[in-house]
Amino acid sequence: MAKKYPDDKAASHPALKGMRFAFIGILANGVLAAIKGIAGFLGNSYALIADAIESASDVLSSFAVWAGLKIASKPADEDHPYGHGKAEPMAAVAVSLALFAAAFLIVWQSIQEIRAPHHAPAPFTLIVLLAVVILKESLFRFVFKVGDKLQSTAVMADAWHHRSDAITSFAAFIGISIALIGGEGYESADDLAALFASGIIVFNAHRMIKPAIAELMDQAPSSNIEGKIRKAAISVKGVIGLDKCFARKVGLEYYVDLHVIVDGETSVRNGHKISHKVKDAIRASNPSVANVLVHIEPSGGDAK
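The structure assignment produced for this chain is given below.
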């Protein structure tokens, strides 16, 4: 059995907050999928049924986010010395792939509906869609704010999934309105709206998957993050200068490798003390930094 490291922070891990909102998303999307599916079937609107499909995929994606954050909140152990944070961007990739799949399904079924003559949707479907747009856009704004605060790609991806649902619902609202106002010959307007909505879904899926893959590939964080790290390090007494600074995001936390230049005549013991002070200063300035590996280099042209 893998042994847990002594600095177990699972009980207060920021991923736990994201998990709560992912669970809210699961419940909301499950209810909305059922409402939209029933209303679409009774109201003869494939755009609304397509919207229900998108909401059903939201349930799965929100569950993927919840599971990813749960794994990411596990503490580091002997098998995973850097923790389990990579599960968080993996969940974001899963959400994006679910969106791509939902868009493909909507396109395929919309084309089938356009080819087959059918009656115009029922007017009551507009009320359902308007309520969904308001609820989903509100969820997007709330969840995105949480994801941005946590710097969680998975939570922000889940937020964009809410907005995708709001967009598809609004597109369906427009399509059904055209079908009802236009009358005979405009019955397929809501199916065309579903096609348009699928394009929006693909766009959002692409927008979400890029940062998640970048994080999995250990892409360097923004220059702002590195700037804060360097500013904190150079403020430590005994630090003459800085050389290399590498940082990577692991879930909701950052791991830093930093080369610090000190007086070449300083003792090993003093250099060790300076490195710990640098680590403490960086973590104090940015609580999302989980660990800092400091490499001490001597001044005077001997640094390598």
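Interim note for the steering committee: The domain at 223-298 is CATH 3.30.70.1350 (Alpha-Beta Plaits). The radius of gyration is 25 Å.
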